[in-house]
Amino acid sequence: MWIVFAVTATALFVADIKLSAGHAHEITRKEALTLCGFWVIIASLFGFLTGYMLGYERMIEYFTSYVIEYSLSMDNMFVFVMIFSYFGVPKKYQPKILTWGIIGAVIMRLILIFTGVGLIKAFGWIIYVFGAVLIYTAVKMYLQKDSEMDPGRNPVLKLLAGVLPIDRTDLSGDFFIRKDKLYATSLFATLLVIETSDLIFAVDSIPAVLAISKEAFIVYTSNVFAVVGLRSLYFLLASLLDLFRYLKTGISVILFYVGCKMLASDFIHVPAILSLGVVLGLLALSMILSVAIPRGEEAAKNKE
Question: What is the 3-state secondary structure (H, E, C) of 83-149?
C-alpha cells in the first residue's frame, strides 16, 4: 500500500503540475473546480482501496482524517489569499509558488507525522498534550480575526532580509535575480512565508488527525491527498470568499470536538464512523449557514 500510494501520488502530482502549472497562467474558476473534483475523486478511490486492503475501520479512519485535513486546509487558504495580496504576487505566478509550497508541505508533514506517531507510542500521556493544544487552537481560531495577521512580521522573512536583499519590483517570475548582486524576489519571500505558515498549520492539523488514527499510513496518506489538492482548492476558494464566512467558526468547532475526543480517548471510545459524521455535519452546517444567513447590511435592507 505504501508503494501504491507513493507511485500514484507522485505520478498524478507531476502530471497535474505539467498540465496546469507548467506555464505561467491564471487558473480560472472552471479549471480550479475541475482540478478540485479530480483530486477529491482520486483521494476517494484511494480510500476505497484502503478499505479493500486494510479493512472497513481503516477506511473510515482515512476518510475522517482526509475530511478534517481538507476542511482545515480551506481555512488556511484564506490566509494564503492575504499573503499573496500583501506581496502583490500576480495571479499567473501563484500556481508556481503553491506547487513548491505543496512539495515542502509534503516533506514537512512526513517528518512531523512520524514524529507524532512515535511520541504517542513512546509516551502515551502526550495524547493529552495534543488534545489540549487542539482545544486551545479551536478557541484561538474562533476569537481571532483574519485582519490580525501581518505577513511582514514573519520572523523567517526578517531572517531572509538579513541574508539577501529582497527586490519587490521584479516581475520576471523567478525566485532569485542577479543585478549588481544576488537578490531574492517577492515570489521567494511569498514562498517562504507560505511554507512557515503551513508549518504552523501542520502543528494544529496533525494532532487532529492523530486523534482519529494512530496508524502512520492512514495519517500521512490522508494528509498528502488533502495537501496536493490545495493549489486548485486555493483558486476555487479565492473566487468564492464571500460564500464561506462561517467556515472558520465551523472548523474551530471541529477542532474543539477532536480535542475533546483526544482527551477522552482512554475513557470513551468514539466510533470512527460517528466522528466522520460529526465532522461532515459541522462542515456542511457552516457552509449552509454562510449561504442561508444574510450579511448584516443585507439583513438591514430586508427589514426596510
Answer: HHHHHCCCHHHHHHHHHHHHHHHHHHHHHHHHHHHHHHHHCCCHHHHHHHHHHHHHHHHHHCCHHHC
